[in-house]
Design a protein that fits this description.
By secondary structure, the chain is mostly helical. It is built from 11 helices and no strands.
Length: 290
């Protein structure tokens, strides 16, 4: 697929929103509605962001040279957004630490995974970033689509997660477009084979590590064994069932002609912008990948 046929909207504006969350409020241990399992999984996710998003930026910027001007500008905006996300989740994680959680084991696991990936060629790193960015985008879509995912959460924490979700959707095509540019000389079959293998690898690690991380944090709250597993699996897979609800969007990654912007979900961005008083950009039809 040539770079000129990419279906990222031509009028898409990736806009870093430099906001700060929770600086004036005291950290509450079970901030997600008093629910140990809900607090644990979001804290486990947040523990990955300062380290992981720095890795995403590093991986994508390695291929910025020679990209078309629009993609080059989007990589720069992506870099700025991710830097702000890292800052805000670092603050969020420090609040969790003040509330009594020890995230060090979770952060060490992220470092361990990334050390393995960093030992591979740069193209593998951008492929891993592309796959993980798809994960974050579909999680963000579901979080914004269904208010049950943040139901009962402390307002500042909920604001942080919604803001982050908006920007993840906004820049969801950047890593994928960078991957397509970097592999523009590859046959379609080779490109699909590599991206499918990488997605399966990162999916396994994502599910295993986030589940283990959440269980560790629940253990720190005195919830262990069968009760911990039951609470967490019900929350993730049944109700509200975030992981179950993203399964279809995850599978689309493997279809021929997939591109993150085949799903034009900018209506979720406009709804968010309206809720915080921003002026939304005009919507236009997205061209499909071929």
């Amino acid at each position: 697929m040539a770079a000129s046929t990419l279906p990222t909207p031509t009028d898409l504006s990736i806009t870093p929103r430099d906001r700060r969350f929770g600086r004036e409020t005291a950290a509450r241990r079970l901030w997600h509605g008093g629910r140990v399992e809900a607090t644990a999984i979001y804290n486990a996710l947040s523990s990955t962001f300062p380290i992981g998003e720095a890795y995403f930026v590093e991986s994508v910027r390695a291929f910025r040279a020679g990209t078309p001007p629009k993609l080059s500008a989007e990589i720069q905006a992506f870099t700025t957004q991710e830097a702000i996300h890292s800052r805000e989740h670092d603050a969020f994680n420090k609040a969790a630490d003040r509330a009594g959680y020890d995230l060090s084991k979770l952060e060490a696991q992220v470092e361990k995974r990334l050390a393995i990936t960093r030992s591979r060629p740069p193209i593998v790193n951008v492929a891993a970033t592309m796959a993980l960015e798809h994960f974050t985008a579909i999680l963000a879509h579901e979080l914004l689509k269904d208010p049950r995912h943040l139901e009962g959460a402390d307002p500042e924490a909920a604001n942080l997660w919604r803001w982050h979700s908006v920007e993840e959707i906004e820049h969801k095509g950047v890593a994928y477009d960078t991957w397509l540019f970097a592999t523009r000389e590859w046959p379609r079959w080779k490109r699909w084979k590599v991206k499918a293998k990488v997605m399966l690898y990162v999916t396994r690690n994502f599910l295993v590590d986030r589940t283990a991380g959440a269980l560790e944090l629940m253990r720190q709250d005195g919830v262990e064994g069968l009760r911990a597993w039951t609470l967490l699996l019900w929350y993730l897979w049944i109700r509200p069932g975030m992981f179950r609800r993203i399964a279809g969007a995850w599978l689309k990654f493997f279809l021929p002609g997939f591109h993150p912007w085949n799903e034009d979900d900018r209506h979720l961005l406009r709804a968010y912008e309206a809720s915080v008083g921003e002026v939304p950009p005009p919507a236009r039809k997205v061209r499909r990948a071929v």
